[in-house]
Structure formats: structure tokens, C-alpha cells
């Protein structure tokens, strides 16, 4: 069984910064893509950023230049550094991972429980 546990959310003023972390644990053979998504009240879940096992990154336009995704493969952990936060960044942020639990097995999609980020003065 695989678990994704996020941390680092909270309340921050506009222009402030937060760093989210997500650690994967359990029966893991390999982790392919790691990513962050977010869902604001009344809106659909949307992509924030992804990073491949080789370090290639992809960002939604809303976070380009302000957000940085990174990963520590030795710790099975992905990070999201968020700078210059805006009220419209307020949402529940979810960690996502494509994980292979056994050699030659299928790649499965896993989600964390979410962490609340609120940007407000």
C-alpha cells in the first residue's frame, strides 16, 4: 500500500511564500511523475506543476515564475516552493504520484489527502 502525506500548508499574506512537501511511503518500486494540483471552492481540480523522475518540469501558466517544483528521489519526496502568493492561489493543494509498486507491474495513480493554502491579509 502506498501513502502520500502532504505538509506545509497554512495562512499567508499576499506576497508571501510557502513550501509544500509530500512524502510517499509504502510498497514502492519506482516513482515516475510527481505533481501538485489544486482545487479552489466551486472549481475543478487543476494542474499546478509536475516533475518527472529525470527532473523535467511542467508548470501551469498561473504559477510560472512564482512556483518551483522539485523532488528528492532518495526520500521519495516532492516539494512545491510558492513565492509571491496571491489571493487567487487559495485552494486545497493535492500531491499526485504515478507509482510502480513492483518491477514490471502497472503504474498506478495516487493522491494525497490535500493541504489547505489560504492567501489573505
How would you summarize this macromolecular structure in one to three sentences?
The chain has 121 residues and is mostly beta strands. The termini are far apart.
Question: Can you walk through the features of this model?
Answer:
The protein is mainly β. It is 0% helix and 57% strand. The strands form two sheets. Strands 2, 4, 5, 6, 9, 10 and 11 form a seven-stranded mixed beta sheet that branches. A hairpin with a 6-residue loop joins strand 9 and strand 10 (107-111). The protein is elongated. The mean pLDDT is 97.
**What series of H and E elements makes up the topology?**
EEEEEEEEEEE
Low-confidence stretches at least 5 residues in length (pLDDT < 50)? none
Distance between the termini: 40 Å
What structural class do helix, strand and pairing data support?
A: mainly beta
Number of helices in the DSSP assignment: 0
Sheet-strand content, in percent, reads: over 45%
Largest sheet: 7 strands, mixed
Query: Helicity, in percent?
Result: under 10%
List keywords for this structure.
single chain; 121 residues; seven-stranded mixed sheet; four-stranded antiparallel sheet; 11 strands
Protein topology:
Elements: E1 2-7, E2 10-12, E3 18-26, E4 30-39, E5 46-51, E6 57-59, E7 67-72, E8 77-82, E9 91-100, E10 107-111, E11 115-119
Parallel strand pairs: 2-11
Antiparallel strand pairs: 1-3, 3-8, 4-5, 4-9, 5-6, 7-8, 9-10, 9-11
